[in-house]
Amino acid sequence: MRSDRRKILAGLGAGAVASTFPAPWVRGLRAQEASEIPVAIASPMTGVFAFAGIEGTDGANHFAQYLNERGGIAGRKLRLIVEDTGYQVPQAVAVFNRLVAEYKVPLFLGDSTGFQKTINEEVNRRGLLLAGASFSSEIDDPKKYPLQYMPGPSYSAQVGMLLKHIAATKKGARIAFVHSDTEFGRDPIAKSEAYAKTLGLEQVEKIVTPPGSFDVSSEVLKIRRARPEFTIFHGYVMAPIPEFMKQMKEARVETQFMGTFYSSDLGILQKMGDVADGYLGVNAYNYVNQEGVNGPAMEFIKKANGGKYRTNSYLQPWTNLTLGTEAMRRCLEAGKEMTGANLKAALNTIKDYDMGGVIGVPISIPGNSLGVGRIFRANLKAGKMEPVSEWIKAEA
Amino acid sequence: MNPAILDFIEFSLAGLCVGALYALTGIGFVVVYKATRIINFAIGEFMMIGAYFFFGLAAQAELPNWAAIILALIAAGTVGGFLERFIFRRLIGESAISVFMVTIGLASIMVGLVEIAWTADPRSLPTFLPDQPFFVPLGSAEAFLASKNGWSFIIVAAIMAAFITVFRFWRGGIALRATAADQQAAYSVGINVPGVFSFAWILGATTAAAAGILVGSISGISSAMGAIGLSVIVVVILGGLDSLAGALVGGLLIGWLEAMASLYIGGEYKQVATFVILLLVLVVKPYGLFGTHDIERL
Amino acid sequence: MRIGSARQTYAADEAIFKTNVQRLWFAALAVALVLLPFVASDYWQLLACLIAVNVIAAMGLMILTGFTGLVSLGHAAFMGVGAYTAAYLSNHVALPFWLTIPAGGFVAAAVGAIFGIPSLRVKGLYLALTTIAASFILQSIFFNWPAVTGGARGLSIEPASIFGHALVTPGAIYWIAMPIAALSVWWARNLLRTRVGRAFIAIRDRDISAELLGIDLLRYKLMSFALASFYAGMAGAVWVYLFRVITPESFRLLESIFFVAAIIVGGLGSVRGAIFGAIFMTLVPEFLKIGASDLAPYWPDAVKLLSPVRTIVFGALIVGFLMFEPLGLNEIWQRTRRRFALWPFRT
Fold first, then answer.
1. How many other C-beta atoms can be found within 10 angstroms of the C-beta atom of residue C95?
2. Helix, coil or strand: residue A256
3. Is A146 exposed, middle or buried (0-12, 13-18, 19+ CB in 10 A)?
4. Which of chain C's residues have a Cβ under 8 Å away from the Cβ of B234?
5. Half-sphere exposure of residue A157: CA atoms within 13 angstroms, side-chain side
6. Distance (Å, rounded) from C-alpha A376 to C-alpha A177?
7. B107 touching C, CB under 8 A?
8. Which DSSP state fits B61?
9. ipTM of the shown complex
10. pTM of the predicted model, to two decimals?
11. Residue C3 burial by Cβ neighbours in a 10 Å radius (0-12, 13-18, 19+)
């Protein structure tokens, strides 16, 4: 009995090793067809950000289909190689090293702020272009991160848009920040506090919640005393925002709830239930089911998904790839080699570019970020996000 | 009324209600430990599968809430019993540390299975609790208590009362206590000890699932929600691993401490504050507040 | 089959290498380790560095758990202490890596000894659970002490340099990581042959008996915690030079669990077990990932759908080894070796 089990265990082990043969210890750079341009994506498909990674992978694959149907990149086809990182930096670095050794990729898409910071020098050394799912304010700096870019405004730019909207709605309004105690949650807070002051807003409370805490009742009690007119959430995806809003409503605090990119997706807001009605969110893109949005890209997305709703994490790699492949096209057409520096220079020449409906205005990318966003209001009865502002340009 | 005192009372109420949920999960943990001496590190994941079963039955299969809750509890209990029968019973006689690590491995397996069955998307549970908040009158002022907190406190109190009755008066409960006190003696008076083990796991898993459904209805569910298990571990060490009363007191105490930390220090120090208190208590009372001291002989 | 031994002294009996054949194999291994970076791709050099870091840390945990019998679920946090120390010293004092790495070890050892104090009263599973407290308290300090740790954003450091030559690539860091890992193993192996090592094992087997034999429990338990944390701190410091960025989210409870899993899978209570476990647990997820991506051309959703399977395999390995092979990979290794040694007879 026991030795049988050992055999099974040994068999499983041998199987695991055999399944990887021919593994990369015998592979160097893989044979590559000249008609293809490979792009590597390290995406979190397990762990806390798995929902975004999986959605993003679909977005990337659809984009490749879309682009290749339209002639690819200056006649060459885009080929994606996707790997899971578990939202862990060492895993992402390993994926980076492996894929960069196996394929000659001009563009790499990463999964997190931590990874993009860690790999920065390696990217500069190897000379390739890097983008990712991070909107970290720190990475929005072309001097420190010369070969990186991000598919939207940084978190502090996003909060800045909300603050400006508040200041325009009500002078000297009372505001409160609610953010998680993570790198993601803390990212824009210090800058936004200062910005709120210059706008003449009165910050009455700042709530920090530890990651993974399910109960917010004592935080609600705190914020109930402060009676803010506007409450800005940042650093969450869903929990604990819905419970926060429910309890605030129960406690009869009249406040306008607001949030940044990840907690402004219609799908997430719908899951939060009725309390999320009227929530104001910043998005960098149009919503997939938004009315009056036209353009070849958006039409392709609607068709490819058969009317199924896709979150804004789906449009993130879509945008990254649109910009990245456009930079490659410009490089190739100018007869330049696709090095990181050349690609970034080509990327920065993108001016008043039409995103095919993904973003409502023509965009430019002078530095590291695509600095436009728009504020939407959740109308859950209609199942829509309705724009309440024009497209806003981010201020540094 | 002095606002500082009102603050204290309001925060204490909120903290005790959260503490009740900790206590309930803690009991799910202690029942298993008492009978089998197994540290169930997967307690948070048992909560998670309970909540997901409820989600699957109520939101996806669209059963009425009460039926979904009952079926989810039965399903979670079945999982507990199944794991006991096919994994933990085979590990009887192994060192406690090994079995502890097995539960860590199981936690990881459960997370993976949930991600395959329901994907990693965060979700909301259907609401089944009324949403009228409580306003507790305090002289001239009123203390606010959120509806879910109040209701979960009431539900937990009812479950606790049932538990105490079972343990005091029902044969099975007495058999469990007898097994906990002395396995050899329990065998010799004709108690079906393996049966007690299965019963303890079923009961533990069901209790954890009930707590999971309540927690999930407050915060929503995701495949990462098992992290709550860590707070529960703090609760049971503080109370004493093998004491039901300890889980009860420990749960309420930790819930209250968290609320106090949030009031006087800041929300980000909630968890750390409880860990610091835990270390201090353990230096004075190494077996927790109510835990049985092991007498070591050579 | 081998013929009998000619050991006549205790010293010979305790020798690490007992035959020339062993010395020969060991020399071959050493040559292979030296040649590795010249033949391996960047990816394998990185994995080799990760394995080296994990071997150092797992070796430390093996001393604490495998030899002294004290389970710790805070090991990764001590790695973090070492990593932050090295980064701080490199940034603010501009010390070279060959000073910051041991410094990381010493600071981690001091912190580890402090958190080891409860082990004097708290035993067994209670202790395992209290070490989680160490993990959370340290992580909170990493988060909330921006002057030293850079707060939530963490720290970045300059690459290690030797004679003005910056060690940037994993291939270069390998020459730091591998020798330290080799030294750690060598030292741990020798520790077992000393009074201290034997005291540890006596404590593991029965601490009250050990005390009756005159072993000072206070001293040796704290020493074990300090030693384990020293290893963890060195591992963390090497880690920092490998990745050059550190954030408080780098060393979480999950990483601590990884190390406990590694030494269990490797085989508790043996030096070899720590090495096997660290190698195995680092490589298996990578292999599974490569397997899934090799399927991608035929099954486009393979990576997406198979990713949760890796989480399951991680758990299943722990459960499977504990149920069916509780002595771990080391036992498989010894069984295999016995089979060859006894050939042509069967066990």
1. 15
2. strand
3. middle
4. 133
5. 26
6. 19
7. yes
8. S
9. 0.89
10. 0.90
11. exposed
